[in-house]
Amino acid sequence: MQERWNGLDLGVILALDSIGPAHWRTRHGDPNMNGRSYGGQLLGQAMMAALMDMPDDRRPTMMQFVFLQGAMPEERIDLRVHDLQAGKRFTSRRVDGSQANGRRVLDAQVTFAKRLDAPEHGAARAHLREEQPESFATLDDVPEHVLEEITRLGGYSRDRKPSIEFRIPQAKRQLDPARMTDTFRFWMRTARPVGPDPRVQAAAFAYLSDWWLNFSSLGMHLRDVGSRGLYIASLNHALWLHRPVRADEWMHVESVSPVAAHGRGFAIASVHDLAGRRIATATQECLMGFVD
């Protein structure tokens, strides 16, 4: 049995116990509104397991993740790590997560790479340097009647993770059901510093990456759902870390949903730092079905 966690310090929930060679176990569960573990918890803990014992000169560059079944917050997750590749420049590992009675809840592959002397490109978003994230609205600033509408989109509501600072530019427009589009942008960071360890920073970023990512797939349909509402659940998730990330510094996320069909919505998010540099890309496919 593990404790449910609703705290501020992400380092606590990312900490793992060593059970044996390449075998780790979680200490805390982080519940969502549906009584299951928050998807970011699984992402962060799987990333942390993959990073254990990884040489310092190899940083995570990619994670491909499948949510197999809903995880129970009160049950520990056993994370077993398997080496897939150990080359001159790249290392790949697979993480298999299961709970009681061998019930598999996640499957992830993480790739690590040495930093190479190589050409670079990527247009910076200079206008982001002019924004002040602290000046934008929090969920506590959003009018109650707006939040009541958003609650019909599955797990979205005033409920928030105290470990995440979350700010919404132009919240009145972006959260207006009559004006929502296939794009949603926000700023986020951890509520407290997580320390200089790049492993913890990467795992904390994985935790954050699930936060409101698929809202771009859902928001524009709020005016169409009527009284039925939507049931949502994360199906798969991918991260590309183009540069080392600092999860405890402000990051701008712009999520766009190019398609939703046959009960599945797809979102692509670009992540930039305060200097306007692109530091990561995230994608997610989610289940989105009407509730009768």
Structural write-up:
This protein is α+β, with helices and mostly antiparallel strands. Helices cover 15% and strands 38% of the residues. The strands form two sheets. A twelve-stranded antiparallel β-sheet has the order 2-3-6-7-8-5-11-14-13-12-10-9. The two termini are 35 Å apart. The relative contact order is 0.16.
How would you summarize what this structure contains?
With 292 residues, this protein is α+β, with helices and mostly antiparallel strands. The protein has helices spanning 10-14, 39-51, 144-150, 171-174, 198-208, 215-218, and strands at residues 3-4, 16-20, 23-26, 28-29, 59-67, 78-86, 90-99, 103-113, 164-167, 183-190, 230-241, 251-261, 264-273, 278-290.
**What proportion of the residues is helical, as a percent range?**
10-25%
Write the H/E string, N to C. Answer: EHEEEHEEEEHEHEHHEEEE
> What is the terminal-to-terminal distance?
35 Å
Going across the biggest sheet, name each strand in turn: 2-3-6-7-8-5-11-14-13-12-10-9
**Low-pLDDT windows of residues:** none
Structural class: alpha+beta
* Rg over C-alpha atoms, rounded to the nearest angstrom: 19 Å
Q: Report strand %.
A: 35-45%
| Major sheet characteristics | 12 strands, antiparallel
Anisotropy-based shape: globular
Work out the number of β strands: 14
